[in-house]
């Protein structure tokens, strides 16, 4: 059994981790921590766990002491010191936040306004996009779990960029996220009367996921890729849907693009390329670890339109983190993650 601990377990992504891990046959959750709820039972905060998982929140140090595999689900800038301790003690560490995602410290400084406390630690980090970096993840001890928007976008573009079927022009991406993406603290934007029955873009041309998206797309394409990324707040609890507009190279036709997507993902259980004519819909990935991709062609402009959708809490956070843990422990990648999505 893998002895798992979760730091920041009172937050949404932390709670989603134990909701899923409780069904994992090779995991024992040995400790979970919270600063605000230390000494309280989980059901005090999340009544759905009452009688199912009556663990008491402890402190961060006890989690590190007891567990061999530590997930951190904290606001940005707080994970490094825990990763350092885990590294020194030979424990595995997966960060659900952004502290181990960017390759360049200068990008982290610019977009997150933090410095690296332990720059050498970052030489060990692996970007946890499971389907793309599988072999590196298997060998890693520190994983930067991808952001939710970047997961939907990078999986949606990987086959196209890897096979250089796109024109060397900037890519336009419109993404929409449910409100759990903003975490559990109340904000003006996620207050029910403000977001309910409304819909708005935010952080236009300035969202902190932009450098992460460009970094990973550029690696896939082996050349610099630039994006115009606009996130929107969708008044639903869960789900991200990204609509991506990419000009195709002149000699590339849509049927070839579709074939490449199918070939690339044919052995990937969690990435589903939908049949031609179908449209990806976040309803049909909610509560699951699937990423559904539909492909569309605008012949007037010779443009590909990719629609890629995930559950932000699962493939966009806790599910992908568990998929990565499975890889790190040489377990079946699907273990604990075989949930069927909502059907209506
Ligand atoms: N929600 C999502 O869809 C996704 C989230 N993530 C990432 O996962 C991480 C956790 O996100 P999420 O669970 O949504 O966030 P929440 O705000 O819901 O939870 C974060 C938790 O961190 C703890 N915490 C510890 N120190 C602090 C501090 N100084 N300030 C605020 N909170 C603190 C809090 O618990 P306590 O006070 O009890 O210790 C809190 O419950 C973030 O880095 C987020 O970006 C990644 C992908 C998707
Ligand atoms: C709707 C909403 O507010 N979403 C969050 C992103 C989700 C998230 O938690 O960010 P990471 O994936 O980087 O951890 C935001 O825009 O900041």
Automatic annotation (TrEMBL):
It is an enzyme of class 1 (oxidoreductase). Residues 3-140 form the Semialdehyde dehydrogenase NAD-binding domain. Keywords: Amino-acid biosynthesis, Arginine biosynthesis, Cytoplasm, NADP, Oxidoreductase. Pfam families: Semialdhyde_dh (PF01118), Semialdhyde_dhC_1 (PF22698). Its main location: cytoplasm. InterPro entries: AGPR (IPR050085), AGPR_AS (IPR023013), AGPR_dimerisation_dom (IPR058924), AGPR_type-1 (IPR000706), NAD(P)-bd_dom_sf (IPR036291), Semialdehyde_DH_NAD-bd (IPR000534). PANTHER family: N-ACETYL-GAMMA-GLUTAMYL-PHOSPHATE REDUCTASE, CHLOROPLASTIC-RELATED, N-ACETYL-GAMMA-GLUTAMYL-PHOSPHATE REDUCTASE, CHLOROPLASTIC-RELATED-RELATED. Catalyzes the NADPH-dependent reduction of N-acetyl-5-glutamyl phosphate to yield N-acetyl-L-glutamate 5-semialdehyde. This is N-acetyl-gamma-glutamyl-phosphate reductase. It comes from Massilimicrobiota timonensis.
């Amino acid at each position: 059994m893998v002895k798992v601990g979760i730091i920041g377990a009172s937050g949404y992504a932390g709670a989603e981790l134990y909701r899923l891990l409780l069904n994992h046959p090779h995991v024992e959750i040995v400790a979970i921590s919270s600063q605000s709820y230390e000494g309280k039972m989980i059901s005090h905060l999340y009544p759905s766990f009452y009688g199912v998982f009556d663990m008491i929140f402890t402190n961060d140090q006890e989690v590190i002491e007891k567990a061999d595999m530590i997930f951190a689900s904290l606001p940005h800038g707080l994970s490094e010191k825990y990763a350092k301790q885990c590294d020194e003690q030979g424990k595995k560490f997966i960060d659900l936040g952004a502290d181990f995602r960017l390759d360049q410290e200068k990008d982290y400084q610019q977009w997150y306004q933090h410095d690296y406390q332990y720059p050498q630690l970052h030489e060990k980090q692996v970007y946890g996009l499971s389907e793309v970096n599988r072999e590196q993840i298997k060998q890693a001890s520190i994983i930067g779990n991808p952001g939710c928007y970047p997961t939907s976008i990078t999986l949606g573009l990987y086959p196209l960029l890897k096979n250089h079927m796109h024109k060397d022009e900037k890519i336009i991406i419109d993404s929409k996220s449910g409100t759990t993406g903003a975490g559990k603290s109340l904000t003006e934007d996620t207050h029910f009367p403000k977001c309910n029955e409304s819909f708005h873009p935010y952080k236009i041309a300035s969202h902190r996921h932009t450098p992460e998206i460009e970094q990973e797309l550029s690696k896939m394409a082996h050349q610099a890729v630039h994006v115009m990324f606009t996130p929107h707040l969708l008044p639903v609890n869960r789900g991200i849907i990204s609509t991506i507009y990419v000009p195709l190279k002149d000699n590339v036709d849509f049927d070839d693009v579709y074939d490449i997507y199918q070939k690339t993902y044919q052995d990937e259980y969690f990435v589903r390329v939908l049949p031609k004519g179908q449209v990806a819909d976040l309803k049909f990935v909610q509560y699951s670890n699937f990423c559904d991709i539909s492909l569309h062609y605008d012949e007037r402009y010779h443009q590909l339109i990719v629609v890629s959708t995930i559950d932000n809490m699962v493939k966009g956070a806790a599910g992908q983190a568990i998929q990565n843990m499975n890889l790190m422990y040489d377990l079946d990648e699907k273990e604990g993650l075989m949930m069927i999505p909502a059907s209506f």
